UniProtKB/TrEMBL annotation:
GO molecular function, one term: spermidine synthase activity
Origin: domain of life: Archaea
Sites where the protein binds S-methyl-5'-thioadenosine: Q39, E114, D145, G146, P170
Residues at the active site: D163 (proton acceptor)
InterPro entries: PABS, PABS_CS, SAM-dependent_MTases_sf, Spermi_synthase, Spermidine_synt_N, Spermidine_synt_N_sf
Reactions that this protein is recorded to catalyse: S-adenosyl 3-(methylsulfanyl)propylamine + putrescine = S-methyl-5'-thioadenosine + spermidine + H(+)
GO biological process, one term: spermidine biosynthetic process
Keywords: Cytoplasm, Polyamine biosynthesis, Spermidine biosynthesis, Transferase
Name this protein carries in UniProt: Polyamine aminopropyltransferase
Length: 293
């Protein structure tokens, strides 16, 4: 936290993206500060973005724009699969992804694997708009390392969602070749996975590596998709979807449209489902093509 002399008595939080770029928000109140064995955890209340979860001085999610991220990481793979019943969510201790997953009537069980139980407890207390479904009867909360979990479990899933932080510290292994091989192993024969894959502007090499590793793991369809994310570095972010069978561009739009009559979303709909892939920029498509050659 810091004070800016131009705004007397006003506290600002600043995340430094590099030596030349930063993002600051004005803080209304500091709700929670603690340190777990894995990371520093803060939840602040801000004037423009509502409550904000910060881990190790990095924006993780905000009440104002979280719906973009959580709807796209969840509904794109879950609607691409024709009948997802068993879902694994790795990471996402704020609960936003789980909240979206349980909206799907076909989903019977959600194994929710989170490394840091302190994040979950803090978000349940201070960010209930996101964490409201963590105690849903469909959700099985497992406090453990997601890397270890996929390496050791014998369970098979229809969809695996990797809602991970940046590839530093304990999360670094979520972006390595062995992890993707184990994710492939944990999926059923027609399974789908999706992972947070950073900014195409800042992290293009990382996205290429992810695509190579997914191909080596055995996935037949590998497709990054992009979207705006105001509080993440560059404001332009990506997920990468990998599928053993189903192509998201072949999903029946009418099926999505019908399902959304009973499902509240603010960003995702049947047009966005395909649009996030079709609107991927030329430089990203060319980089992915090169990585998969």
């Amino acid at each position: 936290m810091n004070q800016n002399n131009n705004f007397k008595c006003h506290i600002w939080f600043t995340e430094y993206h590099n030596n030349n770029v930063a993002l600051s928000v004005r803080v209304k109140d500091i709700l929670y500060m603690d340190k777990s064995e894995f990371q520093e955890i803060e939840i602040i209340d801000t004037y423009d973005f509502g409550k904000v979860l910060i881990l190790d001085n990095t924006f993780q999610t905000t009440e104002r724009d979280e719906f973009i991220y959580h709807e796209l990481i969840s509904h794109v793979p879950l609607f691409t699969h024709p009948n997802p019943k068993e879902v694994l969510v790795i990471g996402g201790g704020d609960g936003g992804t789980v909240r979206e997953v349980v909206k799907h009537k076909s989903v019977e069980t959600v194994d929710f694997v989170e490394l840091d139980g302190k994040v979950i407890e803090a978000c349940k207390k201070y960010m209930p708009k996101l964490s409201c479904e963590i105690d849903n009867e469909k959700v099985n909360l497992i406090i453990t390392d997601g890397i270890r979990y996929v390496a050791e479990t014998d369970k098979k899933y229809d969809v695996i969602i990797v809602d991970c932080p940046d590839p530093v510290g304990p999360a670094k292994g979520l972006f390595e070749k062995e992890f993707y091989k184990n994710v492939f192993k944990c999926l059923k024969d027609d399974g789908i996975m999706v992972q947070q894959s950073e900014s195409p502007l800042y992290n293009l090499d990382l996205i290429q590596n992810i695509c190579r590793y997914l191909k080596d793991a055995g996935f037949k369809i590998i497709m990054p998709y992009t979207y705006p994310m105001p509080t993440y570095p560059s404001g332009f972010w990506s997920f990468t979807l990998a599928s053993k069978k189903y192509n998201p561009l072949e999903t029946d739009e009418e099926r999505i449209k019908e399902a959304l009559k009973d499902m509240e979303t603010k960003y995702y709909d049947e047009e966005v489902h395909k649009g996030v892939f079709l609107a991927s920029p030329k430089f990203l498509k060319e980089a992915v093509k090169k990585a998969l050659e």
